[in-house]
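Let's inspect a concrete specimen:
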Amino acid sequence: MGRLSYDGVEKLEIDDRALAHLQLVIGSKLRRGESFLFTWRPDTSLGGGRVSVWMHPHASLVFRFAGSRPPRINRAWAEAMMNAANSPAGLSLVPEPPEPTPGADSGESSL
């Protein structure tokens, strides 16, 4: 299980594969100087509910991975998260879609 820490206060515990995809999307948005809302549901052992944070280029973020090897990126999943991040509702962890078959045209990338 990896962890995303935001300004040293809010923490999201999540598997390394999902965290790597979030890092890709969040990093892409912040490199462009774009701010956005990020929402997740904490584990019920932490009280459940919903947490939303305003991500901005000056926020203090730490991506801590449990494993030492980076997971393979599912481009379709990263694109789905980027589409969510670009929406008025903001970024959320969407379910992982199947990866496109090799050789299929994936179209333009916004990452």
Q: What stands out?
A: The first helix runs from residue 16 to 31. The longest strand covers residues 2-6. The chain has a mean pLDDT of 88. The chain has one domain: 2-92.
